[in-house]
């Protein structure tokens, strides 16, 4: 059994307070794995066996090592959240109900990038005599240019199938979207859809426009969206993908706060820089309108010579199609809706709550991941802006993303070893955390829902050539950020001239502190609040103070806990007097948003006390959970200490020590 490691910051150094939660070692222990955290003492989580073989080999620090707040800035403090806290760990479990796809182990067809063929050995599973002659029909289909009825509600679903090409062994593929039906004795035995990524001619509405010259600077921009995963649920459910990102040096955004309830209002800020409610006035007058007139960011990339792609792993739940009318024009060079709509209709199976999670024998999310990888390879010598969004597996269940972890990691590896990442800005993000289920009755569940995951991976050349932009982005990792900022960031990537060091320097000096969209390549002001970032109070996760009566039981207990923490700090320094409470000056409950009634979770209080001897005034945040009081962050001294601490030579302890012989 492994030895738990305790990380202590040298005694003279912090001596205190800073609770470091370090995710340590998962240890095989009586058939279970243990998770051990250091948190003043040792907290041991027993988790269900089978989840953990992955966590065992993929270690990472759970909470940013240096504080007990998620972020702490002048304008916004988001309370610290531990992904495996007591309130949460009971919801974590390997999902056992995900059913395999229909016929997944007896597929009758297989393919590679150029061919589709019949797997004859599997014929027996279809009650077809061995050596029978079966015939399969290869039908390509596409989205026709001509629109019969522009006001039809299924204008985005239009499709045209080509004639059947029959084959009885294998066939060479020449199309983007293909449906294959295998027939025996006039009955359909098996049907499957296939998706390919041929390089298309570069088309533009502007006549004289050319594809981006290869030698021009400019990075591929690939956005890989995973629906409904909080920053911390990504830690819990996709540790392999996470540690790969960390290993490659991706920047994680701790203070990434959502701005609307579900997918749509969190994606219009990213793709259009607008609130969903702004669209009415600009480009989407009513619910029956299509989105053709909206100035999507991909149009700007197209204008400078990028190929563009929009792909989701669902048609019915698509961002622009769920109870909406989608597009009548084709929005991007590569547009998956046409394919997904047909695939869902003919081979969608394994419906689980809201989604068909399978396309024939293959998970829909996997279809999307393969597509991203293949498209990147097909367009390796061009530039690509791609927006991809997974829904089917992660949308409804907290733990289902565990099933995808391997394949997301594999996609990253593929993009890495093919050196695609060397020219690519990769953004992995979500729209919000899970919005329902038992976890939502906890305070942490409520906050996590408002804090989706976002990681941005920048290539090495970018970090070198755009070092100011890169440094700013690292800084912003611990600032309050929103989907609107992602939009401004993408705008900066259309023409990288704008983020050269001298330009970043000039722009940093300009006034943008009150802008709603601030590029993540510029320093986000530390004093940014939910209000200046245009995050509605309802979604805001920053602390908001509410004074409570100083003669209440909580106020008294919080102050007592603060005194205990103060005395613990100077314990072991006999030259410092033990401090007692002289006056309880003020207690403020620090609310993060509005708690629900009977919400399960901790409460935090900002406490200000005056102590004796020495009249020191101290302020600290104390957290009260089901079991205990604990200190969040460090204790500040609000008045001068003059010469009181002359007998101790540590800059922090000087704040707390009142020398005995004073
Ligand atoms: C395929 O999987 C199903 C269900 O998982 C199982 O019942 C069946 O025996 C398997 N068939 C083969 C040929 O492995
Ligand atoms: C794809 O499969 C076909 C037929 O099996 C084969 O001839 C071809 O070499 C394969 N191509 C690749 C890229 O693997
Ligand atoms: C299958 O087709 C081949 C060639 O078309 C023919 O020679 C053979 O007899 C057929 N077999 C059966 C079982 O019909
Ligand atoms: C880019 O390529 C074009 C054509 O190949 C060439 O004329 C131009 O000088 C190149 N520009 C740079 C910056 O290398
Ligand atoms: C935040 O700081 C900026 C300067 O960095 C200043 O212009 C702005 O007024 C401040 N905002 C608030 C809300 O104090």
From TrEMBL:
Record-given protein name: Uncharacterized protein LOC112048302
Domain of life (superkingdom): Eukaryota
Record's keyword terms, sorted: Membrane, Transmembrane, Transmembrane helix
Keyword hit for Transmembrane: yes
GO annotations of cellular component type: extracellular space
Statement: the UniProt record of this protein carries the keyword Transmembrane helix: yes
Pfam families: DUF229
Residues spanning the membrane: 21-38
Gene, per the UniProt record: LOC112048302
InterPro entries: Alkaline_phosphatase_core_sf (IPR017850), DUF229 (IPR004245)
UniProt feature coiled coil, ranges: none
Source organism per UniProt: Bicyclus anynana
């Amino acid at each position: 059994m492994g030895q738990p490691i305790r990380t202590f910051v040298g005694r003279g150094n912090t001596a205190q307070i800073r609770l470091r939660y370090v995710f340590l070692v998962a240890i095989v222990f009586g058939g279970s794995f243990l998770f051990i955290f250091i948190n003043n003492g040792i907290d041991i989580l027993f988790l269900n066996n089978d989840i953990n073989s992955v966590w065992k080999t993929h270690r990472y620090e759970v909470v940013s090592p240096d504080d007990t707040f998620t972020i702490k800035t002048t304008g916004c403090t988001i309370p610290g959240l531990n992904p495996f806290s007591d309130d949460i760990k009971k919801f974590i479990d390997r999902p056992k109900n995900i059913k395999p796809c229909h016929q997944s182990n007896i597929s009758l067809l297989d393919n590679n990038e150029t061919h589709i063929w019949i797997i004859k050995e599997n014929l027996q599973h279809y009650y077809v005599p061995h050596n029978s002659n079966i015939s399969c029909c290869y039908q390509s289909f596409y989205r026709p240019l001509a629109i019969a009825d522009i006001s039809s509600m299924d204008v985005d679903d239009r499709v045209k199938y080509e004639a059947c090409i029959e084959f009885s062994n294998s066939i060479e593929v020449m199309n983007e979207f293909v449906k294959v039906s295998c027939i025996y004795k006039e009955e359909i035995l098996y049907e499957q859809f296939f998706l390919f990524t041929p390089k298309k001619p570069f088309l533009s509405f502007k006549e004289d426009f050319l594809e981006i010259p290869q030698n021009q600077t400019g990075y591929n921009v690939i956005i890989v969206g995973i629906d409904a995963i909080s920053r911390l649920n990504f830690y819990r459910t996709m540790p392999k993908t996470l540690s790969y990102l960390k290993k490659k040096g991706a920047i994680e955004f701790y203070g990434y706060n959502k701005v609307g309830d579900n997918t749509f209002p969190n994606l219009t800020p990213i793709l259009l820089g607008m609130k969903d409610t702004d669209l009415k006035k600009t480009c989407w007058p009513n619910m029956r309108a299509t989105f053709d007139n909206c100035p999507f960011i991909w149009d700007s990339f197209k204008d400078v010579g990028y190929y563009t792609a929009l792909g989701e792993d669902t048609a019915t739940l698509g961002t622009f199609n769920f109870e909406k009318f989608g597009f009548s024009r084709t929005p991007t060079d590569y547009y998956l809706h046409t394919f997904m709509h047909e695939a869902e209709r003919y081979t969608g199976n394994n419906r689980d709550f809201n989604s068909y999670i399978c396309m024939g024998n293959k998970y829909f999310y996997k279809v999307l991941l393969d597509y991203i990888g293949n498209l990147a390879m097909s367009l390796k010598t061009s530039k690509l802006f791609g927006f991809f969004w997974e829904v089917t597996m992660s949308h409804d269940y907290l733990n289902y993303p565990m099933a995808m972890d391997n394949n997301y990691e594999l996609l990253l590896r593929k993009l890495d070893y093919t050196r695609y990442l060397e020219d690519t800005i990769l953004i992995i993000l979500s729209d919000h955390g899970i919005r329902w289920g038992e976890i939502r009755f906890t305070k942490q569940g409520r906050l996590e829902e408002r804090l989706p995951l976002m990681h941005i991976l920048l290539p090495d050349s970018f970090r070198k050539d755009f070092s100011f932009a890169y440094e700013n982005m690292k800084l912003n990792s611990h600032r309050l950020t929103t989907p609107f900022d992602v939009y401004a960031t993408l705008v900066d990537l259309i023409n990288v001239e704008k983020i050269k060091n001298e330009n970043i320097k000039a722009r940093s000096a300009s006034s943008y502190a009150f802008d709603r969209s601030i590029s993540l390549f510029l320093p986000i002001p530390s004093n940014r609040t939910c209000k200046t970032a245009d995050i509605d109070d309802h979604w805001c996760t920053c602390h908001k103070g509410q004074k409570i009566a100083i003669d209440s039981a909580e106020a008294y207990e919080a102050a007592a806990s603060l005194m205990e923490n103060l005395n613990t700090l100077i314990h072991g320094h006999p030259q410092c007097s033990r401090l007692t409470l002289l006056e309880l000056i003020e207690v403020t409950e620090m609310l993060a948003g509005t708690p629900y009634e009977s919400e399960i979770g901790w409460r935090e209080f900002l406490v200000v006390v005056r102590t004796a001897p020495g009249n020191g005034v101290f302020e600290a945040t104390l957290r009260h959970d089901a079991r205990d009081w604990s200190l969040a962050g460090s204790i500040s001294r609000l008045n001068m200490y003059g010469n009181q601490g002359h007998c101790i030579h540590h800059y922090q302890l000087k704040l707390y020590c009142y020398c005995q012989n004073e």
